[in-house]
Amino acid sequence: MNVLVLVGSLRAGSTNRQLADAAVAHLPAGVTGTVFERLADLPHYSEELDHDDALPQVARDLREAVADADAVLLVTPEYNGSLPSALKNAVDWVSRPRGTAAMAGKPAAVIGASGSPNAAKWAREDGVKVLRVAGAEVIEDTFGVGASFQAFEDGRLGDAALDAELRTLVGRLTRAVDATRSAA
Ligand SMILES: Cc1cc2nc3c(=O)[nH]c(=O)nc-3n(C[C@H](O)[C@H](O)[C@H](O)COP(=O)(O)O)c2cc1C
User: Fold this and answer.
1) Could you list the residue range(s) of the whole structural domain that residue 159 is in?
2) Tell me: the pLDDT tens digits for 125-183?
3) Global confidence as pTM
4) How many C-beta neighbours within 10 Å does residue 144 have?
5) Is the separation of the CB atoms in 2 and 70 below 8 Å?
6) How many helices (H) and strands (E) does the chain have?
7) Which residue from 79, 88, 116, 152 has its CB within 8 A of the most atoms of ligand 1, so it is best to mutate?
8) How far does residue 149's CA lie from ligand 1's centre (Å)?
9) Beta pairing partners, 71
10) 38 near 62, Cβ under 8 Å?
11) What is the pLDDT of residues 68-102, one digit of tens each?
12) Residue 169: which CATH number?
């Protein structure tokens, strides 16, 4: 089983990247987590680019990575009360072509970190909404970290209760994959 991780912060030292790594560390044995490292290279979605002869290679690679993954984990900071554009753009790319979109039917979950006590709540809610509209089988519950600049110690969440909550959501995502497989 492979979980593809999309991280909405593009900056070095991102707390959301640390959160992504902490989530991957909670994947059960035999499950891999892969961060898609090229969201910064992804052009803004345009229907003019969305043709076989014009499709940017990075968009093709993202679609293939989502199609090959068993599940997708969105890791989001909150920018102006919502998802950062890099993440929304990625979802837009994998929501098309209609009917054969890589995201359709894919188990997914949303987690996020922000410096504020709000813990990226609005971004997480919007993440769930856009994934659902894109056709994913998204878990409605999300996981958030507030005061994120103080939250990590050696790549892990310092608060054991919070870390247990993260482990629970990651476990729910992998079980959703199992459920999808046994229903098929
Ligand atoms: C353009 C911009 C808008 C932001 N808007 C919000 C916001 O609406 N709510 C919030 O809690 N934090 C907001 N922040 C702060 C980010 O959530 C914070 O920088 C985030 O934790 C950074 O994540 P990172 O460490 O993964 O880069 C904003 C930051 C930027 C750069």
Assistant:
1) 2-183
2) 999 999 999 999 999 999 999 999 999 998 899 999 999 999 999 999 999 998 888 88
3) 0.97
4) 23
5) yes
6) 5, 8
7) 79
8) 11
9) 3
10) yes
11) 999 999 999 999 999 999 999 999 999 999 889 99
12) 3.40.50.360
Domain count for the chain, please give it.
1
Ligand 1: atom nearest CA of 10 is: 27
Rg (CA), the chain: 16
Antiparallel, parallel or unpaired: β 152-153 and 156-157: antiparallel
Q: For residue 97, which of 58, 131, 47, 62 has the smallest C-alpha distance?
A: 47
Cβ-in-10-Å burial (0-12, 13-18, 19+) of 67 comes to: middle
> Could you write out the DSSP letters of every residue in 29-73?
TT-EEEE-TTGGGPPPP-TTT-STTT--HHHHHHHHHHHH-SEEE
Amino acid residing at 32: T
For residue 148, the ligand 1 atom closest to its alpha carbon is 21
Distance CA 36, CA 39 (A): 7
Q: How far apart are CA 47 and CA 39, in angstroms?
A: 18
